[in-house]
Amino acid sequence: MTTVFYDRRISDDERRVALFAGDLFVYSPTPSTSALVAHAREMIEDAFGSRDPLTAQHEMTPEEYVEIVAPLKPAFIHHDRTKQLVTQVLGELGADTEQVYFDVPRLRSMTSDNFLNAGVALQFHPHRDTWFSAPLAQVNWWMPVYEVTPDSCMAFHPRNFDVAVPNSSSEYNYYVWNQTGRRDAAKQIHKETRKQPTALEEVDLDPQIRLVTSPGSPILFSGAQFHSTVPNTAGVTRYSIDFRTVHRADLERGVAAPNADSEPQGTTLRDFMRSTDHERLPEDLVERYDNVHDREGVLVYDPSSA
Questions:
Q1: What Cα–Cα distance (Å) separates residue 300 from each residue in 135, 164, 175, 182?
Q2: SS in 3 state form for 91-156?
Q3: pTM (2 decimals)?
Q4: Which residues of the chain have a pLDDT value below 70?
Q5: Largest CA distance in the chain
Q6: CATH number of 4-301
Q7: Among 186, 200, 212, 226, which has the minimal tally of Cβ within 10 Å of its Cβ?
């Protein structure tokens, strides 16, 4: 059974145990999440100029839209203020910032009515992050930047949390993806051609939990949680922020969610940085989770290669 906890104030250790068992946590906006959303809005609205970023898709071609959001997203990801605010978010919500490592926050845009569903605006099919080489000890943090509706939110599929879903994750190599897939995102406009893990048969997505939260209201869930993006039919573009964390002690002790069906090659752990000083995880710890020894590709993505 999956339980949704709202504004539940327990220790981060207890919370991670519940997350790894398939539970979900939702929190009201905090000063730092509100500041992070305001920071994102400022960058989004500056990028779109006189256009309303929520409805701009109705005035533009897909190529024109990509021309704006392709540079906007890495600008947000690598902005010093973005990282500073993420650290504040973690502290406000009870995480030990000396022990917690995060990867760079993503700014996502999901256009409405299938205006654009590829590359920088890809709508992800139902999946687990662990199909994409994420560690089983990963916690995902997600929040909307503007208002969302039941037709533009996130959905979770608790029936599939610890039940195997036939998938192609065994064909996915994270280091090859760093070398080619991430670099080529902006080239994907009318059709997504990059090979990514996907379910190999139709998945029953019911029952499902749709969480409609306020801007800056974070949803926490396990990287092993089976989830999807609700097809956006709201008439406006959805913008959201997400980032991922791991707790170093969990990695050292092997505490994590169950692995129902994930078999990718490589690990994303080298992307994570300590909240306080942005130091990377020790290589000897990462090696415990890396199943690729004859490595081809790129271990850590360099955005300047895009």
A1: 15, 29, 8, 11
A2: HHCCCCCCCEEECCCEEEEECCCCCCCCHHHCCCCCECHHHHCCCCCCEEEEEECCCCCCCCCEEE
A3: 0.93
A4: 117-124, 181-193, 302-306
A5: 52
A6: 2.60.120
A7: 200
